[in-house]
Structure formats: structure tokens, C-alpha cells
């Protein structure tokens, strides 16, 4: 099958949607398909169109649908789609209607869809490979004088990126918590704020943009990951943390609850600095609580194995192939 993957994020960027698109390209090729990735469809022949972002890819989805009504279209739902754009923009809504199937990264996404569209949604959890860590690194994490907490992601308002740094200011002097933040700042205001926070807060270090491998090593060597986002479709950083057995403290938003589960004990209300500070302190000093976080995350880790993601894609494409053959078999 010839598949065209549409990702509006430009080539060479490391935004989450681009990373997701590239991983899916690899999976689809592994499954034996011919796959091309582009920012928009330019009329090249393909058997199936997979578009990330219902709103930003809407024109492509609708144009392809008009020219090839018999061919399947997959629309992958991003966080901004689910929790903003499909409720505001008519073109995004039309793209959802045209899609043969909708792909979501976590099951709670269905709640944002009209009831008649929920039956088209398939959940494909983003996978991650376990980071290879040597005995020296594991020993260093266990014996470190600091209780390292990582924050991963570009410094954007929707990520509420400085919440962990602000929470660390509320910790007692005896605390060993150190916030290590990795991610690029695309706006000068974010650069200035990160630098100012680093000067003011001895518990905080901004590491800037790191390579993917260095980010994974940073996470694997940390005691906790904090994800303080205000909006997520289903953050791959959670997948990476769980396969590396790193517990997560996350803002209670649907995109994270859909990945970690409703009863997870590591949530705090979005933007609630004091609540996050209490969780940080409890994870640091309460061995039983920290063990609960680790045990819960370990039990969810199987959802994010590469083999699981491949199996879900294989199942979805098989269903689409059957549906396409049924359409072709119908008499005119």
C-alpha cells in the first residue's frame, strides 16, 4: 500500500507532531508499506492519506477527499485539535467528517468528539524504546546528593513550563530536589524567564535544547518527570518515562489521565504550584508513596511498547483494507 503522511510541522523541526509522524513512517514501512511524508498533499498518487492535525491539515484532507472519494483518509488528532480547534473551526469539523477513521493517542479523546464520530476513533498509544543505562548511571541516580526531577519539552505557554521550578521554591531547605529542564525556547521572553529563574532559584537548571539521546539519558537518570502541561493530546514523554520506569507527576488534564489512568496518585491540578510542591516533597521523603508511583507506572508500561504500537497500526490498516474492498465490491 502507498501511504502519504501529512505533517504540517516543517522537516528538521523537533516538535512533538513531527517526531510522531516520523515514528509512524518507520512503523508503516516496517509493516511493508511504501510511505512518503510531506507538509501537504501535492497530488502524488497514494492509496491512503494519513494527516496529522485536523485543522492544520483540513485543506489537504478535504481536497484529497473530493478528488478520491473512494480512498481512505486517516486523521490523527493532536492536543490542540481535541481541546481547542475542533470546537472552533468549521474546516476542522469537516475534516473529521470526511475521515474514514480517526486516530487518537489516548482513549479519553473520544469525549471531545460528537457521538456519531466516536465509532471512527482508534487509540494508538505512542511507543518508546527503553533507554540503555549502564550500572554506573543507575548507581549515580541511587546515590546522588540531589533528588533530580526532569522537565522535558520546548518552553511554550501551553506547557506551563516553569511550574516545577516555581514549586521547588516552596520546598524546605532540607529538600534535595533539583529541577533539570531540557527544551528549546522559541521566544526571547521564555529565554529571559528561564535565565532569570536560574539566577534566582538554586534548585533550577535550564539545560536548553538537547539531542534526543541526551534527553532520554537525562530522564532515565532522574527520580521523577514533571509534566505540567495545560493541554496535551497524549504526550510521548510519558511513554518514554514509563518504559524507563521513571514515575511521573502530571497536571490532571485529559491527555495525561488517558495515558496514566484515572486512579493514578501523581496528579496535581493544572497551574497549582502548591499542590505540585506537596507532591514533590512527598515523593522525595515518603518511600511508600514513591514506590506506589513506580509500581503504577510499571504496570502501565506495556501499553507503550513498540510491538504494541505496531500491532495497533496493523489492525487498523487491515480494517481499512477490508472496508475499501467492501466499497469497491458494491454495485453502482
Q: What would you report as the Rg, rounded to the nearest angstrom?
A: 21 Å
Show unreliable segments: none
The outline comes out as: elongated
Overall pLDDT confidence:
92
Query: Beta-strand percentage?
Result: 15-25%
The helix fraction, in percent, is 40-55%
Q: Give the oligomeric state.
A: single chain
Total count of helical runs of at least 4 residues: 14
What class would the helix/strand composition place it in? alpha/beta
The H-and-E topology, N to C, reads as EHEEHEHHEHEHEHEHEHEHEHEHHH
N- and C-termini, Cα separation? 25 Å
Query: Count of DSSP E strands?
Result: 12
Strand order of the largest sheet: 2-1-3-4-5-6
The main sheet comes to: 6 strands, parallel
Structure notes:
The longest helix is centred in the C-terminal third of the chain and has 24 residues, at 306-329. Helix 2 packs across helix 4 and helix 12 crosses helix 13 (287-300). The protein has helices at residues 16-30, 58-67, 79-88, 90-98, 115-118, 135-143, 163-169, 188-200, 212-220, 236-243, 254-260, 273-285, 287-300, 306-329, and strands at 2-6, 34-38, 48-52, 73-76, 101-104, 121-123, 147-152, 177-182, 204-208, 224-227, 248-251, 267-268. It is of the alpha/beta class. The strands form two sheets. A six-stranded parallel beta sheet has the order 2-1-3-4-5-6, with helices on both faces.
Amino acid at each position: 500500500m502507498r501511504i502519504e503522511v501529512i505533517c504540517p510541522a516543517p522537516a528538521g523541526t523537533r516538535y512533538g507532531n513531527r517526531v510522531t509522524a516520523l515514528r509512524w513512517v518507520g512503523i508503516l514501512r516496517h509493516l511493508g508499506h511504501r510511505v512518503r511524508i510531506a507538509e501537504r498533499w501535492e497530488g502524488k498518487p497514494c492509496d491512503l492519506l494519513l494527516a496529522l492535525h485536523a485543522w492544520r491539515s483540513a485543506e489537504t484532507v478535504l481536497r484529497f477527499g473530493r478528488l478520491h472519494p473512494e480512498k481512505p483518509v486517516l486523521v490523527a488528532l493532536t492536543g490542540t485539535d481535541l481541546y481547542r480547534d475542533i470546537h472552533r473551526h468549521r474546516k476542522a469539523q469537516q475534516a473529521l467528517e470526511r475521515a474514514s477513521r480517526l486516530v487518537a493517542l489516548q482513549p479519553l479523546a473520544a469525549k471531545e468528539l460528537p457521538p456519531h464520530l466516536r465509532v471512527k476513533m482508534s487509540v494508538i498509544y505512542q511507543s518508546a524504546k527503553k533507554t540503555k543505562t549502564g550500572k554506573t548511571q543507575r548507581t549515580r541516580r541511587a546515590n546522588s546528593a540531589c533528588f533530580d526531577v526532569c522537565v522535558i519539552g520546548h518552553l511554550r505557554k501551553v506547557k506551563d513550563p516553569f511550574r516545577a521550578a516555581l514549586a521547588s521554591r516552596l520546598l524546605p531547605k532540607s529538600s534535595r530536589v533539583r529541577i533539570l529542564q531540557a527544551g528549546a525556547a522559541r521566544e526571547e521572553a521564555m529565554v529571559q524567564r528561564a535565565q532569570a529563574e536560574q539566577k534566582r532559584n538554586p534548585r533550577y537548571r535550564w539545560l536548553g535544547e538537547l539531542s534526543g539521546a541526551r534527553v532520554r539519558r537525562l530522564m532515565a537518570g532522574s527520580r521523577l518527570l514533571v509534566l505540567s502541561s495545560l493541554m496535551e493530546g497524549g504526550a510521548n514523554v510519558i511513554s518514554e518515562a514509563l518504559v524507563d520506569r521513571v514515575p511521573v507527576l502530571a497536571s490532571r488534564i485529559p491527555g495525561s489521565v488517558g495515558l496514566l489512568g484515572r486512579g493514578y496518585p501523581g496528579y496535581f491540578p493544572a497551574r497549582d504550584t502548591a499542590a505540585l510542591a506537596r507532591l514533590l516533597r512527598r515523593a522525595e521523603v515518603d518511600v511508600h508513596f514513591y514506590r506506589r508511583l513506580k509500581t503504577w507506572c510499571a504496570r502501565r508500561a506495556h501499553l507503550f511498547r513498540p510491538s504494541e504500537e505496531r500491532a495497533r497500526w496493523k489492525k487498523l490498516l487491515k480494517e481499512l483494507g477490508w472496508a475499501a474492498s467492501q466499497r469497491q465490491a458494491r454495485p453502482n
